[in-house]
Amino acid sequence: MIVAMQEKATEDQIDAVIDAMVEAGVNVHRTTGATQSILAGVGPTANLDLTKFELLPGVLYVHRISSPYKLAGRVFRPEGTVVEFRNGVKVGGEHVAVMAGPCSIENREQMFETAARVKASGAGFLRGGAFKPRSSPYAFQGMGIPGLKLMREAADAHGLLTVSEVMEISQIEPMLPYIDLFQVGARNMQNFNLLRELGQARKPVLLKRGIAATIEELLLSSEYIMAGGNYDVILCERGIRTYETATRNTMDISAIPVVHKLSHLPIVGDPSHGTGRRDLVGPMARAAVAAGADAILVEVHPNADKAASDAAQTLYLEQFEALMGELKVIATAVGRTL
Ligand code: PEP
Ligand code: MN
After folding, report:
1. Considering the entire predicted model, what is its pTM?
2. How far, in Å, CA of 184 to CA of 195, rounded?
3. Interval 241-266: pLDDT, tens
């Protein structure tokens, strides 16, 4: 159930409503927007008489949430979520953020050169995988924590934030000092134990859509994180598997406006995994910004062809720089900044 409070509702009135909801046996999640507070009650509400809540002082309206996701739905935060990071960087809202870096962290030179160049062209986040989910157990599996240390150093030297994939619960704690944003990869979108644990972590989470996941399943996975009290979730469209073989995945651009309609959570477009091909990254990045993406996640590498993983879809630094210029024009055209 959703209880929307009146603009002028007092804290005492809000507390009284929360108490009544708890007494009725539901877990209460509160968001305080620019104009009003919204209380989402999650639990057995099917047989509750909602009029009782409508009559409490300070209540504007009450309704049942019919969608299976309760906290990820747009009604919970009608104005949209803006995830705030250090240095004033935000994901969501007017600005389109950019996250760029290699698929895998490989060495110091690679990370420092990438950090300097992506920062210079306007990126806010440095990406790089240290724990890699590879299709083959014999492929490069990532540098682990020493790699994350390198990425942190390079990012700090250039005033960037960091994002990296967490594959299992035991990695959460050791990763905390080095990352600003946990990435949950496509293969782990339905690793519910990991999602639950990230709900307890007080750091934002970038949740990628699974290779065969519907948008509803993506939103339900975000619900696992939010149910734990971590509302700083950013979704990511990274392509899904279809019958098409011309591209590695099919980048579902329509998922971007669909998510914005259904949910308040920001959504990122990842044209690198979305296409698997360097020549298609630019067009799909442009399309994602035009469709309203709140950020773009792109794989770049100083020596793209020699990247330890995902070389074929990785941009050279010069290509990334040119793309940033194009994305700025498109962002302006759709009323955003980049
Ligand atoms: C990645 O970002 O390098 C990655 C492995 O992404 P995905 O989970 O989307 O395949
Ligand atoms: Mn990759």
Report:
1. 0.96
2. 8
3. 999 999 999 999 999 999 999 999 99
Give yes or no: residues 28 and 120 share one domain. Answer: no
Question: For residue range 122-164, what is the model confidence (pLDDT) as tens digits?
Answer: 999 999 999 999 999 999 999 999 999 999 999 999 999 999 9
Pocket test for ligand 1, best of 167, 208, 209, 247 (most atoms within 8 A of CB): 208
The length of the chain, given as a count of residues: 338
Same domain, yes or no, for 114 and 19?
no
207 and 236 in a common domain: yes
Pocket probe mutation, ligand 1, options 249, 268, 273, max atoms within 8 Å of Cβ: 273
Compute the distance from residue 146 Cα to the ligand 2 centre, in Å. Answer: 19
Count of CB atoms situated within 10 Å of the CB of 136? 7
- Is 133 close to ligand 1, i.e. is its CB under 6 Å away? yes
Q: Check whether residue 60 and residue 92 sit in a common domain.
A: no
Q: Are residues 289 and 183 in the same domain?
A: yes
Report the C-alpha gap between 155 and 275 in whole angstroms.
27
Q: Could you tell me the residue range of the domain that residue 137 belongs to?
A: 83-333
Tokens 């993506």 belong to: 218
